Every structure is written in C-alpha cells, then in structure tokens.
Write a sequence for this structure.
C-alpha cells in the first residue's frame, strides 16, 4: 500500500500511508484508537475506496471494488466482532458464498469434505461441521472464521484484535495457528493493543499515528517503550502512576459471598483511598462477583455490607449508596450508544439539571463539559453520539457517568479492554487521582475495585490484589507480594 489517503468530509483519516507485508511475514499494525488502522484495513478489504495512492498484491495493481472482490482476490479480513451466522452450521459458515454446486444445487457431500479440510488446517479436526456455530465456544468461533479464510485460499490474512475475548489457552492455540499459516506463505497483518502479544507473534511492525505511517521496524530489536513512544508521539516514561494511597475506613465488605453458579465463595474488604484488584482467568467468576455486589445478580449465601447496610439490593439502591459500576461490555451493557455524551454522563443523576422533573439541555451540557475537560474526553461536543467515539473515549464516558453521580465506590470490570495505550495511561492516571483524592477541592479519596485479565495493569495500578480461581477468591495481599507468575499460578489452581 503506497501513499494511501482517505477523507471523510472535513476529516482526513489517512494521509499518505505506506504499508508493505511480505509473503509468510507477520506484520503488526499498531497505533492509538483513531490512528487510522481500521480505515486502512477497510481500504485493503474493499470496504472503502482510497482517494489517492495505490495497492499492489503480488506485485500487480489491486483495486478492490467491494469486500467480495477483495475476498475473492485472496484478502481475508477477520474483525474483532466476529461476522459469523450463528444459526447456520459450521460448514455453511466456512463456505458461505462459495458453496460447491451443480446446476444451482448445493453439493452437500463436497461441501462437507471442503469444510473438514479447512477445519483440519486450523486444528478443529474433532468439530462436527454440521454443528451450528452458536454451539461453539468463542475461541472455536474465532478459528472457524480463520478456517473460512483458509477455504478461500487467502494470500493476506488480517486479524483485528483477535484475542480480546479469548482465554489464555485459546490465545496460545491462535498464535500457533498464525505461525503455521505464515510458514505456508500467507502474509498476516496483526492488529492489537497488547504490545506483549505484538512482541510475541510478529516479525515486523508498522506504527500509525494521526492517519500517517510514522515508523516500521523489526519487532525483536525494538522495545515496547519505543513502540509506545511512536504510537503516542511522546515519551511514556511511566505508564502506571506510582503515588502513595492512604487507605482509611472500610466502605465495602463482602463475606463468604456466593451466587447461583459463581462466585462460590468470596470475601474481601475495600477501604476508602485504595485500589483493590481481582485477577483470574476468564470464566473464574470475577464479573459475577462484581455484578452480585452491584445487585445485578442474585446472592445465594453470604452478604455484602456497604456502610451499615447489608440487606437485599438492586442497582438503584447501589446508586443511592454511592456505588457505581463500569461493565466489561461497554457497547451492550455499559453505554447507551444511540444517545449523546451528555445523556450518558448525566443519566444516573439528573438532579439540578432543570426545574422539577425537567432536564434543560444547556444545564446538561454544562454538567457534561466538566468531565469532558477533566478526564479528558476527545469529542466534538457534548451532544455528539457516544457511538461516534473511539473505544478509549467511550470508556472515559462510562467512568465520567460514575463521577457525575458522585459515587464513593467504583466497580470497574476490565476498564481498559480494547483501548489504545495512550487512553490506558490516561485512565490509570485517573484511577490513581481518584484513590488519592484532592484536599484542595475537598474531594475525598474513592474506593476502587478493579477486575482485569491484564496482569501488568493490576500490578501497576493496585495497592492489593486477590485472585479468583474457579469461583473462589483468595485472600488479598499487598501488590509487592505478587508477580505475574504467582498471580497466574493461583489463577490456574497451582497454589
């Protein structure tokens, strides 16, 4: 791809981007949200036509008119949100649009044979191709997407944030498969915000920043710190703020808590002015614990005590008790994407935004602007739909909603999932400042409970960490007592 430019109205999304990938090479494409990665890949996959520049595939001019044209030319794009038909069978998904047929009639036996070959190539030999996709795990569905690319005999495979919803074992299987495919001459473009993955899987990298390709290099000889600096355009000396937090009184106490399925038993104390982290594998029961505390899931045993109250609870009561939660799935549970930034921020607390039960847009916008500037949220105005924002800015809106509601206890479930390193650094700084409070503005320290699958994040931001394993929560220990190996050992039940 040479000199690729793309404009949307007044916005110049791509400014002469260059990207070269060799056969059998794994190229990491990295950059902050909004840097132009998705737009560039949509040009490659035929979803967008470039305003200028040229594409070459195997040395020949390549001008895909639409995604089907690109797909038939050997360019396979696998998005973060899987594009499978869950009600169709595995083999129907793999060969959708390229079904073997004779006189317009599908040849089901030939279809099954081809599907089995494609499944075998991605390590799913034991999967019955007649199963519906919705019967498979997320990890298996991801491999079915790749099997579809294999069936198309793709020459270029684009993976967009492929591990965001995968467990550790599925990630390991995916990496092995990607390396196998590259060894067969397939060019792989790997998009990820996890730089440790980039270092592990890729041969080279290209950094996009503000719609421009700023640097390419060999991954093995380039440090993560150097890549981060290229991504954000400045040195990031300390991604995780290390300030002293002064934990005081207990504001949340959980005692032998269990739910319908998970958690099985969880006890913890959260103090004002501290950040308490919960590590563990996906499916261990971490999200269920936060949802039970917030009143979203039923409690079958034990209790949650906030202040002096330990009775039945629902989310409305928790809001009134100054407890707020940010869901791990911001698109379907955490935000109202069709509403504006101002609507999303002010929804839990409309007091003072108008006379009686009225909400005056001017007052709502003023209240929202405070958080837009303080956090900060990159947007055109408070009236802009949340769906228009990048993932990092959407996450900031979700946190701003809690701050507008003046919560004292923040329950944060995967607060930086799927966002770029620059936005992560801003959220870490915000978490640190909330835990410290501000005497000058009479802002009391907050109590923060974080669930995260990203161990460096927990080790870098938390004062204490507990580990959830198969529904059971370990005792919280000071962060200085942990390292990544110990956290993982407890998570998988070795300790």
């Amino acid at each position: 791809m040479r000199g690729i430019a793309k404009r949307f109205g007044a916005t110049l999304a791509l400014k002469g981007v260059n990207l070269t990938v060799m056969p059998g090479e794994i190229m990491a494409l990295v950059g902050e949200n909004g840097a132009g990665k998705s737009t560039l890949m949509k040009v490659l996959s035929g979803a967008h036509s470039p305003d200028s520049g040229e594409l070459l595939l195997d040395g020949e001019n390549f001008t895909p008119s639409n995604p089907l044209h690109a797909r038939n030319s050997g360019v396979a794009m696998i998005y973060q949100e899987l594009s499978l038909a869950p009600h169709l069978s595995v083999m129907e998904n793999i060969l959708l649009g390229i079904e073997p047929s004779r006189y317009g009639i599908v040849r089901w036996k030939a279809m099954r044979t081809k599907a089995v070959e494609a499944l075998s190539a991605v390590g799913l030999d034991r999967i019955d191709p007649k199963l519906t996709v919705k019967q498979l795990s997320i990890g298996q569905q991801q491999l079915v997407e790749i099997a579809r690319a294999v069936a198309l005999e793709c020459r270029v495979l684009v993976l967009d944030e492929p591990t965001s919803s995968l467990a550790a074992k599925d990630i390991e299987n995916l990496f092995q498969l990607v390396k196998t495919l590259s060894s067969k001459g397939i060019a792989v473009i790997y998009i990820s915000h996890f730089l440790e993955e980039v270092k592990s899987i890729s041969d080279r990298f290209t950094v996009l920043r503000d719609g421009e390709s700023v640097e390419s290099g060999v991954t093995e000889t380039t440090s993560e710190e150097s890549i981060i600096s290229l991504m954000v355009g400045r040195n990031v000396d300390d991604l995780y703020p290390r300030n002293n937090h002064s934990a005081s009184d207990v504001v949340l106490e959980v005692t032998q808590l269990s739910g319908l399925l998970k958690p099985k038993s969880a006890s913890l104390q959260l103090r004002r002015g501290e950040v308490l982290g919960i590590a563990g594998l996906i499916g261990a029961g971490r999200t269920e614990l936060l949802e039970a505390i917030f009143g979203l899931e039923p409690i079958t045993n034990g209790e949650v005590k906030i202040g002096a109250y330990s009775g039945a609870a629902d989310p409305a009561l928790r809001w009134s008790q100054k407890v707020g939660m940010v869901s791990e799935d911001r698109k379907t549970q955490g935000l109202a994407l069709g509403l504006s930034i101002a609507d999303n921020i002010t929804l839990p607390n409309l007091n003072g935004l108008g006379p009686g039960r009225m909400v005056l847009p001017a007052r709502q916008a003023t209240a929202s602007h405070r958080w837009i500037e303080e956090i900060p949220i990159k947007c055109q105005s408070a009236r802009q739909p949340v769906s228009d924002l990048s993932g990092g800015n959407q996450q900031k809106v979700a946190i701003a909603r809690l701050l507008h509601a003046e919560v004292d206890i923040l329950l944060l479930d995967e607060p930086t999932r799927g966002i770029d390193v620059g936005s992560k650094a801003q959220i870490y700084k915000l978490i640190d400042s909330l835990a410290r409070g501000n005497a000058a503005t009479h802002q009391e320290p907050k109590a923060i409970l974080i669930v995260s699958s990203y161990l460096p994040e927990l080790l870098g931001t938390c004062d204490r960490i507990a580990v959830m394993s198969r529904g059971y929560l370990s005792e919280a220990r000071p962060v200085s007592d942990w390292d990544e190996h110990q956290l993982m050992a407890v998570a998988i039940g070795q300790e």
Summary: DSSP finds 17 helices and 23 strands in the chain. The CA atoms of residues 284 and 470 lie 5 Å apart.
